[in-house]
Write a structure and sequence with these properties.
single chain, about 240 residues, mainly alpha, 2 helices, about 0% strand, rod-shaped, membrane
């Protein structure tokens, strides 16, 4: 906005400078025209005086009578004076028309310049405002797009992290379950081995006991059966 105000101030100063220049030009033109008209009038008067003097000199040279000379002088003066007046009037009218035309042209040019400058100022201001609005809209759209992209990226990252955590937890749980099952299986195997060992030991013990018992029985039987025979033999 400050830039626009400075721009408007500079344009206003330029307009004032243009106005001053136009007015100076108008004044100079008017002065020149008035000077030309004054010079023309002076020249016409000088010509009139010279013509009158020439008529008087010619009258004396031709030795005419006083009445003839006055008639000649009057006739020539009237002709010169009437032609000079007509010429001066024509010149004055022409100069007046020229002055009026110049003033009208200057006024029209000044008005046109004002209108053009105002139109240019309005166009520039509207263009600047439109550019500012477009820039604001573009900036807002970019901000919205960036926010959306950031939100999407954050959501994707969170989802990926959650999925990874879930996968890790599931894998850990599965591993724990597998380990527990392996431990349970090992325990079962150990129990089976222990039972088998106990059974084998019991069987071996039973077999050994049975064998020992059988041997003892045999020994007892042998002892019991052989003793009377020995007694008889030794008797």
């Amino acid at each position: 906005m400050k830039a626009l105000l400075n721009l408007n101030i500079s344009w206003s100063q330029d307009i004032q400078h243009v106005k001053v220049v136009v007015r100076v030009v108008v004044v100079v033109v008017v002065v020149v025209v008035v000077t030309v008209v004054a010079v023309v009038v002076v020249v016409k008067v000088v010509v009139l005086v010279v013509e009158v003097v020439i008529i008087i000199i010619m009258k004396y040279l031709r030795k005419q009578t006083v009445d003839d000379s006055f008639k000649l002088l009057r006739h020539g003066a009237l002709i010169v004076h009437s032609s000079s007046i007509v010429a001066v009037v024509i010149v004055v009218v022409v100069k007046a028309v020229v002055i009026v035309a110049v003033i009208v042209v200057v006024v029209v040019v000044e008005v046109v310049v004002k209108v053009v400058v105002r139109v240019v100022v309005v166009v520039v201001v509207v263009t600047v405002v439109a550019v500012v609005v477009v820039v604001k809209v573009v900036v807002r759209v970019v901000v919205v797009v960036v926010v959306i992209v950031v939100v999407v990226v954050v959501v994707v990252v969170v989802v990926v992290v959650v999925v990874v955590v879930v996968v890790v937890v599931v894998v850990t749980v599965i591993a724990v379950v597998v380990v527990v099952k392996v431990v349970v299986l090992v325990v079962v195997v150990i129990k089976v081995v222990v039972v088998v060992v106990v059974v084998v030991v019991v069987v071996v013990v039973v077999v050994v006991v049975a064998v020992v018992v059988e041997i003892a029985v045999v020994v007892v039987v042998i002892v019991v059966e052989i003793k009377p025979v020995g007694d008889i033999f030794f008797r």
